[in-house]
Amino acid sequence: MSSSEDVKDISILDGASSVDRSEGWFTSVTDFLTRWGVETNGIDPILPEDRTDTKLYQMFFVWFSANLNILAFGTGSAGPAFFGLGLRDSFIILVVVDLISCVIPAYFAVFGPKLGMRSMVLARYSWGYLGSILPSAFTVFSMQGFLILNCIIGGQTLASVSSHLDDTLGIVIIGVISLLVTFCGYKVIHWYEMIAWIPSVITFIVMLGLGGHHLTQAPTPPPPSTSTIISFATTTASSVISWCIMTPDYGVYHTNKASTMRVFLYSYAGFFIASLAGHMLGAAFAAAAPGVPSWEAGFDGGNNVGGLLQAVLKPSGGFGKFLTVLVALSVPSACAPTMYTFASSLMTIHVWFARVPRYVYTIISEAILIPVAIVGATHFYATFVDVLSVIGYWSTVFAAIVITEHLIFRKNDPARYDLSKWCKPRELPLGIAAVFSFLCACGIIVPCMSQAWYVGPIANAGTGDIGILVGFALGALLYPAFRVIEIAYSGR
Questions:
Q1: What angle in degrees, to the nearest 10, is found between the helix axes of 305-313 and 260-288?
Q2: What are the DSSP calls for 279-335, one per residue?
Q3: The pTM is what?
Q4: Structural contact between residues 189 and 39, judged by C-beta atoms closer than 8 angstroms
Q5: Distance between CA atoms of 42 and 346, rounded to whole angstroms?
Q6: Tell me: the pLDDT tens digits for 333-372?
Q7: Is 455 helix (H, G, I), strand (E, B) or coil?
């Protein structure tokens, strides 16, 4: 292909590679925001010479802060509150699941510094230009689902401190703070995540000091069934693994000369320490709640995690309310990166979307987020489990395909990704192998699902919800076979 055709290919098929700043309202606004330090870059891969940030410890804090919050607390509390598990069973499941599942998002975090590509641009190197529209669209909906969950739980927590506040106002406040952080972009998000974990750590330590003596008195429920254990395990795994669809986004400006192992270990430590601590604390206090009337009342039958947190802190008086407010206001630590990836993923769906600046999509996300979260808050756990599980189903298959492409066909070598091809459909893989593998995996996931609104025949036979397990396995097995055929046919 000639150089003139290359230029034409880029401008027509992916004008996202360089947003037109020559005319229009967006141009003047974008230029103004750039002068004030707001990130206005599009989805172009960051070239190696522009990846200069050597502060690799940020890879720890961004995921430590994003996971050590009340949403992780809520995930752990689902064991006793939703699945009827005891404290011992919940702890064992959480340790095993977190040890294993944190590997996947931490592995994906390495792609950021090494390739300089955001997750859904990276997807084009296995899913193809057109095929990657599918995971990009799913990511957009998944990120919005995450935002809804975060805002519900943050809003409930904030509302629990005063009768003058309700869930609706709390959700609005959390949503607006998240918008402000995300609007400013990559650097501000990293700065915010460096300190956002502090209120949560202080609050959880105080909670243990105030209510720790009740945790040993948690009632012991009947032995759980195998299906219950598996369903809680896969729900927890979904909450962790699904981060993989966004972790590359937060290392694209970090140096590509960094050790792969260092990036992985920083990311894994951030995920594992925060997830395990938040999950186990949530399980412990939820399991003990039935034995403490004030906790049980605050928990509201398992539908108000913020109410449980406030009830535990209530004996400390005004200081407890202050901590409750702080931990609620730290929820944007999970919302901000989620909203950022919502915007960048939407820009990869079509060239038209990429012509609109990223900050516009954060406003659109906010407009969708608040009304949906207000409605979903009335049935938190049903909403929580359904959203997490659905995200987990598809994201595990996505992970299997991308990892298989990287290890088998790219030989675990970043040099085998030609960054100049990111927006050239004729030079990227066809994507047929990835799409077929995904569809086949979804075909086996459906009968293995166990949700409030649908229980598949395999899950109903007593296996529990094994959708993410079989989906990952089938995706990893089918993709190499289909990809070999695709390469033989297309040569790319």
A1: 80
A2: HHHHHHHHHHGGGSHHHHHHHTTTT-HHHHHHHHHGGGTHHHHHHHHHHHHTTHHHH
A3: 0.88
A4: no
A5: 11
A6: 888 889 999 989 999 998 888 888 888 888 899 898 888 8
A7: strand
